């Protein structure tokens, strides 16, 4: 099954490989129908509603950020997302350390599952 915008033209000289060409008109019409609204509506639904909060920061830092026209809400959201990702990753690693160590020992003792079939 081909993706929209791809048209199979002919088999190549190699068995099982097909030459694929792009249907540029189909791609362009699909692109026009998929507006930024669609992407943002999915993002907003996934992120949930926004809430107002009070945050205390150094006044000099606030003045410098405003002078550089930095979006404080977007910056805070980005920083919080990064911190949550790091903490969740560290928590997962801690919770799964024993299983990871056991797997690594098994690979050291028996090799990887592809070692027997690999030709290099």
Helical coverage, percent range:
55-70%
Strand order of the largest sheet: 1-2
Distance between the termini: 33 Å
Count the domains.
2
Low-confidence parts, pLDDT < 50 over ≥5 residues? 1-12, 17-22
Look at the helices and sheets and give the structural class.
mainly alpha
> SSE order, as H and E?
EEHHHHH
Query: Helix count?
Result: 5
How large is the share of residues in beta strands? 5-15%
Global outline:
elongated
Kindly state the number of beta strands: 2
Radius of gyration: 26 Å
Sheet with the most strands, sense and barrel status: 2 strands, antiparallel
Overall pLDDT, averaged? 75
How would you characterize this protein structure?
The structure is a single chain. The chain has helices at 24-33, 36-47, 59-67, 72-95, 97-110; strands spanning 6-11, 18-22. It is mainly alpha-helical. The protein has two domains: 1-48, no CATH class; 71-113. Strands 1-2 form a two-stranded antiparallel ribbon. It starts with 5 loop residues before the first strand and ends in a 10-residue tail after the last helix. The model is unreliable at 1-12 and 17-22 (pLDDT under 50).
